[in-house]
Amino acid sequence: MIQIFKDAYRLTRAPGYTGPKMIHIGGFTPWWFKYTKDGPGCPDCKHAGVETEWETMGVVGAYNAFDDGDACCVGAMANSAFYQHYPLPASLVQNPKPTLVSLHQRGLLSPAGKVVPKAYAAYYAGDYDGSAWLYNQLKPKWDDPKRGQVPIGWAVDSELSMRFPVIYPYLYRTRTANDWFISGDSGAGYLNPTLLIPDPKTGKRGGSNVTVSGADDWIAWNKVWYQKFDLTFTGFLINGDQGALNSAAFQMYDSFSPDGVVVTTGHDPTAAGKLNGAAWVDGNGTAVMHHVADLPGGNASAAAAVMVELVRADRSSFRDKPSFYIFRNILQSAGYMVDAAVGAIGAMGGELEFVDPYTMGLLVKCSSKAINCTATNPTLD
To answer: Any residues with CB less than 8 A from the CB of 374 and at least 6 apart, and which?
Structure first.
């Protein structure tokens, strides 16, 4: 397998090659049938499914490859060779992004530009990082009649339109004012971002012999897709077993994801990583927030309880300051997310407010004083 990636990477560097510098992997480890102990095919296998996934992702990114995974059951897809020919418009436009003016109008900022001190929560609705899940899982969850009652960040990776473009015009056409499109992990393709950058100690990318940075290739690839689908927010930078993200990794996202990126609390390299509700702004002005929990699927009451417990335990560290929380939902309906949010708000009252991811990113910039958020700022006129 590694030799295939080596050869593919070498071909993208060959004289006369003018195609994409990123390599699209369609498929995944057949975990249900072999290689992992999670399926019936290999009960005596040593490794679990997620463990095998992370091991795979710890290899491919070093060769400029990202994964668009298919697998058994809910991860299966048919006829992508047919669907890929569906024509898309040159671009799709989502709801107008929030502005400082709108934040003042909504009462989220004081006239002096301070963020109203409370807990702010935003939903990440995924994991639509593979065409198969997009194909057979998203529509019934999107079509839930309760959709639109709370803000939801739908994490639909844009490059999946290469295999299943059909659904994108439907999503953009039927969105409500509370439906927001963001990218899932880790942008326009699932990979571990730090594998794009040579390790300063070894000069190599991961366990490979590649010494050339893939940062510019990744930036160029993402700019195309983010512009096409009106995205400026990345809902999850997953880095697997590669550990904490670094400044070089964050810098890649500044140019195409300026409204925000989300990392797991443990993968935040700053002191802010010690608190779930902490957030900060990098040197180029991109807001960095924390994915703090995967909510329990199928049980909105349990999900509400998780959110309330986590926020209450965390809020004492912030006192009269705001705190920010991204909650991840995996293959859950809009109705489930509405019910969970209503339950959490009912338990916490005015202490908790759900906002869309773009609003949260802008609030983080104001809270960090990275921009002038006062009502008298002439740029607001």
So the answer is: 111, 112, 113
